[in-house]
Amino acid sequence: MDMNRRALLAAAASLALPAARAQKFPDRPIRMIVPFFAGGNTDMIARTTGEGLTRSLGQPIVIDNKPGAGGLLALNELVRARPDGYTIALGTPSTQIITALVTKDAKVDAIRETQPVGMLCGVPLVLVVWAGLPVKTVPELIEYARANPGKLSFASDGIGTSTHLAMEMFCQFTGVQMVHVPYKGSYAADMGNGLVHLAIAGARSQLALAEAGKIRVLATASEQRLPFLPQTPTIAEAGNLPGFDASSWYALFLPAGAPSELVATLAGATRTATAHADYLARITGAGFLAHPGGPVEVAAIMARDKKKWGDVVDRLGLKI
Q: What's the CATH architecture for 131-238?
């Protein structure tokens, strides 16, 4: 065989190698970084998604819980990983966008340094008030808060979290003044006893208190009414506050720079996993919403959310 022919065959083999590798993907377990402690709804979503991806891809998904720093520990670990498809991460608006906006020297930009794979589900939020407050509608709440500036308090999951910024956005939209009370754990008991007056919180977690008559659900905090609360208006429609949307989500991400074929493979597996009947039954049973979407849709939502939450943070001058 002459040297030219040998060189051509070698070149052809080298060009075919990436394609062959792509066709084999995955050939070993995939690690999913989860920026929260094991247990709870987030862990359930991660593990349920992992089961679906295992069905689709034929390889185990290994859950690696990396809580801390509002999600920055997990995010930093993801962006340092090789973009070969064997490290993925679960993300939320808080971990992917808000924490970097409110944290001094965050030194990571998820929009620039990660690659969206697909949406997992939506997180329905509702505006709730202590039943002892003399308000039953959003307009009544706004009127009462304006008449009593600084006397109402709202709970959140902590400074700089999505539930904190959702209520701050409500205050900015309505011009009311309230006191923020950040919690590290559940504030359900304090809400039920009137020690804190209102919150924007996960819908399902509030329904038991509402059924017990300890709180009232005034509105949903998303763009559309919730399928399991069809008679409950949105904050935007009830309060005549067009554009108000504090909706949240869970999505999957790769490090930036992943090959397009690999992104497509994982995106397809994610679509299949999140459309499976078992997956839908588990997430809707836990109070989450089906929210299909691929890489393009997730990227668009992240860009929108960065602008929305960035405006709230800038008005607050919030840095922690």
A: 3-Layer(aba) Sandwich (3.40)
**CB of 115 within 8 A of CB of 83?**
yes
**Structure confidence by residue, pLDDT tens digits, 145-154:** 999 999 999 9
241 HSE (CA, 13 A, CB side):
24
> Model-level pTM?
0.88
Question: Tokens 């979503």 label which residue?
Answer: 45
pLDDT tens, position by position, 203-231: 888 888 999 999 999 999 999 999 999 99
Place of tokens 């309230």: 178
Instruction: Walk across the sheet containing 114-123 and list its strands.
Output: 61-65, 30-34, 87-91, 248-255, 114-123
What are the two backbone dihedrals, phi and then psi, of residue 182, each rounded to the nearest 5 degrees? Answer: -80, 140
Beta bridge partners of 119: 251
CATH of 29-123+248-316, one of 2.40.50.100, 3.40.50.720, 3.40.190.150, 2.120.10.10: 3.40.190.150
Query: What is residue 23's predicted lDDT score, i.e. its pLDDT?
Result: 58
Region 237-250 average pLDDT: 95
Closest CA to 76 of 66, 86, 84: 66
What pLDDT is stored for residue 242 in this prediction? 95
Q: Could you tell me if 86 and 32 are in contact, meaning their C-beta atoms sit under 8 angstroms apart? A: no
